[in-house]
Amino acid sequence: MPRVLLIEDDPSVREGVELGLRRRGHEVRTAPTGEAGLAALGEFRPDLLLLDLMLPGMNGVQVCRRVRESSQLPIIMLTARGDDFDVVVGLEAGADDYIVKPARTEVIEARIRAVLRRIEEPGTGRSAVEFHGELAIDRAGLTVAKAGERVALAPSELKLLLHLTAAPEQVFSRQQLLEHVWEHSYHGDARLVDACVRRLRNKIEDTPGEPRYIQTLRGFGYRFGPL
């Protein structure tokens, strides 16, 4: 079972989530502050980080940015305010998904599995290495390179790129991408898609503001070029 590091300052939430995940077989380490959580990362080596957005001192967005400086560890944010501007900032900082508190353990467990499946799924049966302009995508090895240099992608970024490149020129709506990449079958939050696209463009485009690979069709969604 995946090892989970939970950074949460509210003792009741922290204990409830920890107990629920342990009952489902997860090994869980907890930390009450961002600083303590960062210190535990290297020692515990989790498979996924559950990160509260509103932490005292170093907040969740700052923790997320610090983690992304050196790691593509899957990150799910926990927030009590699902429509808060900070959610967008957290997604832009590199979080793969978010959950609004309070949330049942089965919901958290399902999101954990969905995020981890993005880096565990085998290739699609297509040629293992595909070339799209300067991009080389190894579907079997789940790696991406640009002009020969490896590009580090978070799980949601990689899954989004793999999905778009599986059908070049096909337009996908945000809802379709939510269902296929994030496995949100309900009417989900398009901010997840838009934030992930922006992060991905920053990593693979020469000029993110004038994208060559991931194109926006206003009112419809996104498609993969390249132009």
Automatic annotation (TrEMBL):
The modification 4-aspartylphosphate is found at residue 52. It comes from the Bacteria. Residues 126-226 form the OmpR/PhoB-type domain. Residues 3-116 form the Response regulatory domain. Residues 126-226 bind DNA. Keywords: DNA-binding, Phosphoprotein, Transcription, Transcription regulation, Two-component regulatory system. The keyword Aminoacyl-tRNA synthetase does not apply. InterPro entries: CheY-like_superfamily (IPR011006), OmpR/PhoB-type_DNA-bd (IPR001867), Sig_transdc_resp-reg_receiver (IPR001789), WalR-like (IPR039420), WH-like_DNA-bd_sf (IPR036388). This is Response regulator.
